[in-house]
From TrEMBL:
Protein name listed in UniProt: DUF3575 domain-containing protein
Length: 190
């Protein structure tokens, strides 16, 4: 129920802000809809889908994701962790839709932690927030408002204020309070 309410609030807020900005926007050059994914998520036995609106120098997006965390990241070879959740991002675009950006991100996530032998399983839920920056490489032409494919390498530094150890059978899982997250998204601008 909490996750559904969170999604509803994020969706409603993004719609209202976007609707207002789209109506107020006289120059439609910087207004657009984008969809994107994180190929790394699929490589890590997960999924990723994000929807974004751009207006003027602002980009707002929301998405869903899931990944199986790599073993070297966990620090405990007896555990398997699947992280999934929803996120909301807002970025300031320094260029005209392409180039450097700086933004903020808020995520509600769930970690499913289990012993690899399947004898114990626990869940860890909570919010993280952080800052992010990257570079938008737009493959479309400027005179066509950069419509088409794009690539965005970016990195975030996320903070999990409620990070606490979780006991899973005889093993302990210690989530990080600060998480650097580098990745590359591939998308399409309409």
């Amino acid at each position: 129920m909490k996750v559904s309410l969170f999604i509803f609030i994020l969706s409603s807020g993004m719609f209202l802000v976007t609707h207002h900005e789209l109506k107020a926007q006289k120059n439609s050059e910087a207004v657009g809809l984008e969809i994107e994914t994180d190929p790394l998520a699929y490589f890590l036995s997960g999924y990723s889908f994000h929807l974004a609106y751009t207006f003027k120098h602002i980009r707002a997006s929301m998405g869903v994701f899931g990944i199986e965390q790599p073993g070297f990241f966990l620090g405990n070879e007896k555990l398997a962790v699947f992280s999934s959740g929803y996120d909301l991002k807002a970025d300031y675009l320094f260029g005209n839709l392409r180039g450097l950006f700086l933004g903020v991100q808020m995520t509600y996530g769930k970690e499913t932690i289990e012993l690899k032998n399947g004898q114990a399983r626990e869940e860890n839920n909570g919010f993280t927030y952080g800052i992010r920056s990257g570079y938008r490489i737009m493959l479309g032409k400027k005179d066509k408002q950069f419509k088409g494919l794009y690539v965005i390498p970016w990195i975030a530094l996320m903070h999990a204020p409620g990070a606490k150890p979780v006991q899973v059978g005889p093993e302990e899982y210690r989530p990080a309070a600060w998480i650097p997250f580098p990745t590359v998204h591939i998308g399409y601008r309409f």
